Description:
Layout: H1 4-13, E1 17-24, E2 32-38, E3 43-49, E4 55-62, H2 94-100, E5 103-109, E6 115-122, E7 133-138, E8 144-149
Antiparallel strand pairs: 1-2, 1-8, 2-3, 3-4, 4-5, 5-6, 6-7, 7-8
Amino acid sequence: MQLVLPILAAVTVGCTTTGTGFGSAAFGANPTTFSWKSSDGRSGTMSATLSDGTSYTGPYFQITSHTPIQSIAPLFDGWYSGWDETNWNVGASPDFIAQYTGRVLANLASPSGSRMRCEFQLLYPSNGMYGGAKGECQLPDGKTIDAKFPPA
Length: 152
């Protein structure tokens, strides 16, 4: 029985998953590289680097019907009234959870404080980002980047 706890601790520590993705604006312009890291398989940190060197980093969340509303509050950090909210205007609410169940959402920030908002449809929802995803990110100027994450 004493051997079970160290083995269980080693397995728990080893659960971090990572992956990469790529994206571009219309017609292949502005290539973007993405990376993500998760310790629980449903949330984590995502980074994006644009072709001009601008980087964005922040939290991502896989929304499920069981996602606690308060846990997604970081998705709304840094919003300002001039941003096209791309249907995220329902705020952190049961309606938001219902509308985005089965998707991954991210709110990324650059060192200067500008924001990139992302929405991804999972290829295999039970596997989270590890199973792959595709979607779109919106930059502060309203332009969008199509993104793809192959299964890790």
